[in-house]
């Protein structure tokens, strides 16, 4: 059985796995003819392994430098986005308060023309306030998302390229 398993590995061109089975077969003290066949098979496998080691190119390994992600407070762009969003939000709030004040003044206006002017001005300011508010939400959201995603960013640590008989194999390692 051990000899047959060794033969199977040779047929599958796995000489490195066949040799231990042949050696275990020899340790069971088979008859002289079978021992000779197993010894010959071991020598053939060792020759094949030596020849394939000379022919097979070594794997090409490229390592990328490992960098720890910087802390969130080191991200100048993220801080700038959140700060810009905060400023836009504050401006939007102040413009909205100004629009509310104009509506209060419109209620106290003594002429219809002045009332219409104040209401139209308040509508325009309310529109600006909503635009500033939307901009504030967008900038702050992108800044916070940057902070969160910075910790989850995948960093490439290494790439290995191993040429094979029918192509090759590319592997990489990463940290998540």
- Strand proportion: 5-15%
Strand order of the largest sheet: 1-2-3
State the end-to-end distance: 46 Å
Overall structural class, as computed from helix and strand content, comes to alpha+beta
Indicate the low-confidence ranges by residue numbers: none
Arithmetic mean of pLDDT? 83
- In angstroms, what is the radius of gyration? 38 Å
Number of helical segments with 4 or more residues = 5
Quick tags:
176 residues; 3-stranded antiparallel sheet; alpha+beta; single chain; 3 strands; 2 domains
Structure notes:
The chain folds into 2 domains: 2-55; 72-152. A hairpin with a 2-residue loop joins strand 2 and strand 3 (167-175). A 3-stranded antiparallel sheet has the order 1-2-3, with no helix packed on it. The longest helix is centred in the last third of the chain and has 41 residues, at 112-152. It is an alpha+beta fold and 176 residues long. It has helices spanning 2-11, 15-27, 32-55, 76-107, 112-152; strands at residues 60-63, 155-164, 167-175. The relative contact order is 0.12.
List the helices and strands and how they pair.
Layout: H1 2-11, H2 15-27, H3 32-55, E1 60-63, H4 76-107, H5 112-152, E2 155-164, E3 167-175
Antiparallel strand pairs: 1-2, 2-3
């Amino acid at each position: 059985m051990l000899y047959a398993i060794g033969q199977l590995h040779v047929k599958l061109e796995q000489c490195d796995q066949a040799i231990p089975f042949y050696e275990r077969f020899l340790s069971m003290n088979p008859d002289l003819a079978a021992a000779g066949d197993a010894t010959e098979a071991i020598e053939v496998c060792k020759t094949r392994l030596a020849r394939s080691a000379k022919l097979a190119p070594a794997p090409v390994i490229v390592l990328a430098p490992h960098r720890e992600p910087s802390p969130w407070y080191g991200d100048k762009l993220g801080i700038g986005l959140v700060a810009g969003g905060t400023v836009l939000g504050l401006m939007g709030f102040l413009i909205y308060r100004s629009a509310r004040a104009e509506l209060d003044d419109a209620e106290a206006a003594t002429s219809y023309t002045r009332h219409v002017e104040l209401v139209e001005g308040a509508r325009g300011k309310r529109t600006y306030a909503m635009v500033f508010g939307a901009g504030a939400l967008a900038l702050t959201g992108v800044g916070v998302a940057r902070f969160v995603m910075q910790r989850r960013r995948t960093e490439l640590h290494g790439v290995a390229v191993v040429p094979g008989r029918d192509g090759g194999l590319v592997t990489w390692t990463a940290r998540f």
